[in-house]
């Protein structure tokens, strides 16, 4: 677990893009978990550069300079991240048990609850308009995720004869999920906001780590056996769903 002090510190780099120069905050992290450098922008609009242990920070800066256009585009996109309640009103559905379920948002004084209607096949979220909205929505969605995500993961695990050792649903800042060396899988509650195919892709990705605790060629081959469209799903997750990971974070 990273300390808050480490997470809140960053350096600055000047990157060139098609729209001009931009001073960009970044955090350089060496880790055994990656075999090559990769980038993402966190919820605070800080670029996080993860690199293998052997890589120097100078080589990391050169890597960011080579990808300056992409980084600047991502930072501009972050400015338009929707509010959680606005997103739910524009995309009124959740992915539960492998299917898309209609979502209804209601307001009632003194009430914060969710109801899953089996007959109507929909989920109703009722929140108190007199209280801060986002914490209520996050609490309700986390409860739903804790009810459905472990069950769906176990369905897929049984189908492929895999056995995780413990499942938790959490509020990760930048990951859709993770798998420990002991086989414990942790899932982000925001997975219920993804489409069913993308949600299953993430679940299968974590299950694949039960056989390959890395991102080696063997891992990707095994993942493709579990999810034949894994490459397409991974691209869609990066392109279409990357902003969902930040929903509700800055608003809490």
Automatic annotation (TrEMBL):
- Entries under InterPro entries matching the protein: UTP_pyrophosphatase-like, YgjP-like_metallopeptidase
Q: Which CDD domains match?
A: M48_yhfN_like (cd07344)
Q: Which intervals of the chain form a coiled coil?
A: none
**YgjP-like metallopeptidase domain span:** 35-238
Which PANTHER family does the protein's record reference? UNCHARACTERIZED PROTEIN YGJP, UTP PYROPHOSPHATASE
This chain belongs to the protein called M48 family metallopeptidase
């Amino acid at each position: 677990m990273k300390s808050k002090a480490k997470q809140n510190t960053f350096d600055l780099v000047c990157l060139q893009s098609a729209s001009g120069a931009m001073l960009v905050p970044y955090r350089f992290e060496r880790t055994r978990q990656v075999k090559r450098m990769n980038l993402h922008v966190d919820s605070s609009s800080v670029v996080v550069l993860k690199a293998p242990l052997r890589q120097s920070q100078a080589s990391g800066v050169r890597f960011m300079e080579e990808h300056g256009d992409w980084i600047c585009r991502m930072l501009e996109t972050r400015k338009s991240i929707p509010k959680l309640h606005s997103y739910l009103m524009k995309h009124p559905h959740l992915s539960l048990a492998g299917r898309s379920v209609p979502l209804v948002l209601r307001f009632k004084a003194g009430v914060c609850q969710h109801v899953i209607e089996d007959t109507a096949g929909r989920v109703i979220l009722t929140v108190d308009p007199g209280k801060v909205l986002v914490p209520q929505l996050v609490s309700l969605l986390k409860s739903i995720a804790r009810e459905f995500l472990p069950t769906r993961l176990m369905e897929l695990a049984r189908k492929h004869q895999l056995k995780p050792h413990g499942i938790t649903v959490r509020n990760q800042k930048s990951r859709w999920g993770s798998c420990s060396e002991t086989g414990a899988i942790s899932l982000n509650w925001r997975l219920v906001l993804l489409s069913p195919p993308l949600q299953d892709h993430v679940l299968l990705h974590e299950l694949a780590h039960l056989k390959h605790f890395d991102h080696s060629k063997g891992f990707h081959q095994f993942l493709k056996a579990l999810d034949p469209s894994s490459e397409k799903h991974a691209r869609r997750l990066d392109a279409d769903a990357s902003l969902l990971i930040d929903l509700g974070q800055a608003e809490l």
